[in-house]
UniProtKB/TrEMBL annotation:
InterPro entries: Mito/Outer_Membr_Metalloprot, Peptidase_M48. GO terms for molecular function: metal ion binding; metalloendopeptidase activity. Residues 67-246 form the Peptidase M48 domain. The keyword Protease applies. Its cofactor is Zn(2+). This is M48 family metalloprotease. Signal peptide: none annotated. It comes from the Bacteria. Pfam families: Peptidase_M48. GO terms for biological process: proteolysis involved in protein catabolic process. Keywords: Hydrolase, Metal-binding, Metalloprotease, Protease, Zinc.
Length: 488
């Protein structure tokens, strides 16, 4: 490459970097930070994410909990570092124990995490933590750093022929760097969660207690927890100690001994909340997927894993060489849906036929998609078997997908699942009910194990309920204490 060409490329790179907005002042630290995104763009990005998050998980309808979270979230927002930002709070219909935030003021909590809180203070601490991610602009900042890192990496590849062979290693190095930032962000959000929850009068030590629950969950599931340096989040045990120290420091600085916990009030709010998977939204039993609300069923390929979400059902073998995707079409007829899918996915139709599946009008299409490998230039063929089934005013769609060379090995499996789609009429399957959190008052003083036995809890469920209540089975409980049980 000639020297003049190199200088020209460098000039273009420098010009691109100069287009980056000037460093913004972080609302939390008061220090300048790189930011490629304005607050208006951040808000717009959150508004774009929100419908996708809701469509992916679904909303959990609980007016009392929703009202409580919005009320407390508004209180936190007023004393936060970004009090003028409009915040939005969502409860997601997912059993996963999770809470997260996206740019622009959107905070999400799953019903799974709400079921595992044992008092208001735990909820408020985690809510403050997620608000901390927003007030400190962690997501927006992270995206800005990645954009600049990619820009500099591309610039290096442009300027130096020798640098290109090291590009993959450089990219891996930047990912490790940003992993460190992610851990720092989590710790900063822990700090902000303590600060915000304490400032509105809650005991932030309870936030530490919830990290203790997470620590016990990890120990039970992975025999020792997650090593600190192998996770994008700090180890729960480390967070427990750090949050406890910060909570004490903040409480001492505010010179008060009256900190809100509100255990009984919170437990009464979650009385009846769905616990675990909700079978009304689909469940597998003896190799059959049942959907009581939409009243259909179909067989799951033997040995395949199934993932169910409001958007679609995905099934795949452990080797990942094939997949069946089941979803709902927007069109009113099978023919319209088939035509739209072929066009939108850029498929080439190999065969099309009209059949009936258990008396339901169906369009069956075999198709393929041929693409070129960008690295090798070789052609790649993916084959698809699709069933478009009209049922109860909707069109249900199966796609069986595999590579061209493997497709014939899975064709019979695809057809067995798709051709056995049928109406669900069995009362026992239609009337299935989800498990729910049931709040009960301890009848007699004794150990938690004694109290659970008095309610007829089986021995194999004891440890799960001890964890759910964040207690030990040998711990003493007084008569009248509220505890969580699991019932229908």
């Amino acid at each position: 490459m000639k020297k003049r060409q190199v200088l020209s490329k460098l000039a273009l790179l420098i010009a691109a970097i100069l287009l980056i907005p000037s460093c913004a002042v972080n609302p939390v630290t008061g220090k300048k930070q790189l930011m490629l995104m304005t607050e208006e763009q951040e808000i717009e990005l959150g508004a774009q994410y929100d419908p996708t998050v809701i469509a992916t998980f679904g909303l959990y309808e609980n007016p009392d909990l929703q009202t409580f979270i919005e009320k407390k979230g508004t209180e936190l927002a007023k004393i936060s570092h970004r009090p003028n930002l409009e915040y939005h709070f969502r409860i997601l219909d997912s059993p996963v124990i999770n809470a997260f935030a996206v740019p622009g003021g959107y905070i999400y909590m799953t019903r799974g995490i709400l079921a595992h809180f044992n008092n208001e203070a735990e909820l408020i601490g985690v809510l403050g933590h997620e608000m901390g991610h927003i007030t400190a602009r962690h997501t927006a900042s992270q995206q800005s750093k990645q954009q600049l890192g990619q820009l500099l990496l591309v610039g290096g590849m442009i300027v130096s022929e020798d640098f290109r062979q090291f590009a993959d290693y450089a990219m891996q190095g930047m990912q490790l760097l940003f992993l460190k930032f992610s851990r720092d962000n989590e710790r900063q959000s822990d700090k902000l969660g303590v600060e915000y929850s304490t400032k509105i009068g809650y005991d932030a030590h309870k936030m530490a207690d919830f990290f203790h629950v997470l620590d016990k969950m990890q120990m039970e599931s992975e025999s020792g927890g997650i090593p600190t340096f192998y996770s994008t989040h700090p180890d729960p045990g480390d967070r427990y100690n750090d949050v406890n120290q910060r909570a004490t420091s903040w409480q001492d600085s505010l010179n008060s001994n009256n900190w809100t916990v509100n255990e009984d009030n919170y437990l009464r709010m979650i009385d009846g909340i769905v616990y675990g998977e909700d079978p009304r939204q689909g469940y597998v039993e003896s190799g059959i997927f049942y959907h009581p609300e939409m009243k259909f069923k179909f067989p799951v390929p033997s040995g395949w894993q199934l993932e169910n979400s409001p958007l679609q059902v995905q099934m795949a073998p452990s080797d990942g060489k094939a997949a069946v995707i089941f979803t709902l079409a927007k069109q009113k007829t099978a023919a319209e849906a088939a035509q739209t899918v072929v066009q939108e996915l850029n498929l080439t139709t190999l065969e099309s036929r009209n059949v009936t599946v258990n008396g339901l009008p169906t369009v069956v299409i075999s198709s393929q998609q041929v693409s070129q490998n960008e690295q090798t230039g070789a052609e790649q063929t993916i084959k698809v078997l699709s069933y478009f089934i009209e049922y109860s005013g909707s069109v249900y769609v199966f796609h069986g997908v595999s590579s061209g060379e493997n497709f014939s090995n899975y064709l019979q499996t695809f057809e067995l699942t798709m051709s056995n789609f049928n109406r669900l009429t069995e009362a026992s399957k239609l009337n299935v009910k989800p498990k729910r959190i049931k709040i009960q008052s301890v009848r007699n003083s004794g150990t938690l194990a004694d109290a659970l036995k008095a309610f007829g809890v089986s021995q194999n469920q004891m440890n799960e309920l001890a964890l759910l209540n964040n207690m030990e089975l040998t711990e003493q409980v007084s008569r009248g204490k509220l505890i969580k049980l699991i019932g229908d």
